[in-house]
Design brief:
This protein is mainly β and 154 residues long. Helices cover 3% and strands 42% of the residues. It has 1 helix and 12 strands, in the order βαβββββββββββ.
Length: 154
């Protein structure tokens, strides 16, 4: 098994959300570990949230399973039904097709670091459950396009 040299990894801080919706993820950074190793059936991101940062807007996936494993610090898992504090060693899973919007938020004073592991589907729909967020993301042939909830393209 080839060892991955993380010192050569690019860190992604950009977000696919349009306009001001992207501000929600300021302070989030990701290293696509799966991409570094040439994986294409599932994705693995090493994600870091600075204090006050969020992983995403509250969302759920139609086709893609997700798993989060906490490595360092503390983050709050915000779901449609409530909130749960996650600490190192804690795991949360999100089954594809289950309409439970979720996101991670760092409300502590130190960085929170976790692994995000998920299915890679070339076509996907990500629905956003926060009524304040007028967004639906559609992935076709691996590329995401933002839409409003009424179907209008951003």
């Amino acid at each position: 098994m080839p060892k991955i040299d993380l010192s050569k990894a690019s860190v992604r801080t950009a977000c696919v959300y349009p306009g001001e919706l992207a501000d929600h993820c300021k302070g989030r950074s990701k290293v696509a570990l799966g991409d570094l190793g040439g994986l294409d059936q599932f994705g693995v991101n090493l994600t870091r949230l600075a204090p006050g940062a969020a992983s995403a807007h509250r969302h759920w996936h139609l086709k893609e399973d997700e798993l989060v494993y906490m490595l360092e610090g503390e983050a709050v898992l915000v779901e449609d039904g409530g909130e749960t504090v996650l600490r190192p060693g804690d795991v949360a899973t999100f089954k594809a097709g289950v309409a439970n919007g979720h996101m991670m938020v760092n409300r502590s004073g130190a960085d929170a670091v976790f692994l995000e592991i998920g299915t890679r589907s070339p076509d996907e729909i990500s629905s956003y459950t926060d009524p304040e967020v007028d967004l639906k993301m559609i992935k076709e042939n691996g590329g995401w396009t933002p839409y409003r909830k009424n179907g209008e393209k951003y």
